[in-house]
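Limitations
The structure tokens in this dataset are predictions for the assembled complex, not deposited experimental models. Users should treat interface geometry with appropriate caution, especially where small molecules or nucleic acid strands are included. An illustrative entry is reproduced here so readers can see what is and is not provided.
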Amino acid sequence: MRPALALALALALGVPAQAAAPEDLTAALRQARTLAARGEAEVRVYFPPRAVPTRTAARLPAVPFRPALLARNFTVTRRDDAPPVAGREVIRYDLTPKAGEAAHWTLWIDRAWNVPLAYEERFPNGALARRAALTQVQPQPLRVQAGVPPIPAGLRGAVLAALPGLRFPPGFVPVALQARAGGGVTVSLSDGVNVLALVIAPRNVRPALGVASRRVGGRFVWLVGNLPGEALRAALSGLRAADEAPLGTFLPAPDSKR
Amino acid sequence: MTDDDLDFLFAQARVQTPADAGAAERFLARHRATLAPPPRRAPLWPPLLAAAAAVLAGVLVWRPAAPALPASAAYDVYQGTLGEGW
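Predicted assembly:
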């Protein structure tokens, strides 16, 4: 009788809650495009490395969340028993990549406002990469205009035409493109929450934590981000050519005054 | 001088000795030296030009790559993709 009751309880409470977790998180991330909590935030960044990792800010730094990609690439676990953040009741969401070695994330979402009050990114080994958390919150959230631009149609094909043999790390897709001042281009890759910078450049860059590069023909291709070194190098290992020409149509005209 | 002496001398003159060969060689060498035009020094510039061209071509093809940028250049690019405020 008792196991049956436990199962019934799990079905009634746990399973539906878990099944709905990605949808709940998606709703919160969509809400965050128009509404944001303000106050005082503590921001800690250990990757990319910097001289002073901790600072304070009046708001949470932006994370280019892409809810559709996120739901596809991450297992979302909801925790309703999380301790409050800045004195406010929160729901905690843990994001674990379904494949590959992408960074793990935890988000704390305000129960009443349904917007983030804190989030953190952890290396696959569990060490903290980035964390931002409001320590004080103003009584009312603010109307904002946030969000990310849509992914240009055909970008993936153009990137693969520019870099034949490139293997996107599991879950990552190209989402944006930018010309570089010194020549070359930067392609942003996203898995919904993590980002990688893929660069075609006339010069090489020294290898370091989260930085891999390869010479292809007369160009250098860099891949930068929070992935283990082998995963970054594996993405570049099959490259056969590097030519920015197929990406030209995705770049803004040089004389545009945007 | 008897006939026998003369016969001996003639017989000796008919037989070629190493001394004769050496004398002939010395004469011919002198003769050829006077006949042949004075030796011209091989010009130096074609090999020098070829070497310079090879070096130039090598430099152009294997253009010494600019030194690799420090890792901070890569982190700056990554920072630009992270989103505002980090």
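Some entries come with short summary sentences. For this one: The mean pLDDT of chain A is 91.
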